[in-house]
Amino acid sequence: MAEFLIAFLVSLLLIGGLVLALTYGRAPTWRPDRRKVLDLMQKLQTGDVRQDEWEMFIGFPILHDPELEAIRRLCVGIHEGDDRHPPASDGLGQYVYDRAGRQRVAEVQKELEQLIANEPYFRDF
After folding, report:
1. Which side of the chain, N or C, has fewer Cβ within a 10 Å radius?
2. Which residue ranges make up each domain of the chain?
3. Is the distance from CB of 60 to CB of 40 less than 8 angstroms?
4. Residue pair 76/104 in contact by the 8 Å Cβ criterion
5. Which domain of life is it from (predicted)?
């Protein structure tokens, strides 16, 4: 009887913890802002970005910011190629892309910098 009671209490605690975690937890989300993406592009230029960070940026749609999604799609076009350009080649060493690919990313980076400069400024008091 004691074994049953111990097993029941342990199971109750585990299931109760699971219910609480699922009730009050939230799904993991990835919501990059424009400055974070700009930092990612700057790291790509210097060779400091990790391959998985860049692939996460170009692999997941950005639903909360349509302008940033347009920037992401331009980067996908660089990565996969488009009608005018072939896909960007792999870079040497720590670089994700070769010089031509990084130059194309730099052009997109200028567009993102312009978007950030034109953001409305507000202060929460």
Report:
1. C
2. 34-117
3. no
4. no
5. Bacteria
Determine if the pTM surpasses 0.85: no
Q: Which two tokens stand for residue 95?
A: 């670089």
- Which DSSP symbol is given to 97? B
Among the residues of 25-125, which ranges form H helices? 34-46, 51-59, 66-80, 99-117
Mean pLDDT of the chain: 90
Mean per-residue pLDDT, 62-84: 92
Q: How many angstroms from the chain centroid is the CA of residue 22?
A: 24
* Cβ atoms < 10 Å from Cβ of 108: 19
Report the pLDDT averaged over residues 61-76.
Answer: 93
* Percent of the chain topping pLDDT 90: 64
pLDDT at 70 over 80: yes
- Distance from first CA to last CA of the chain, Å, rounded? 62
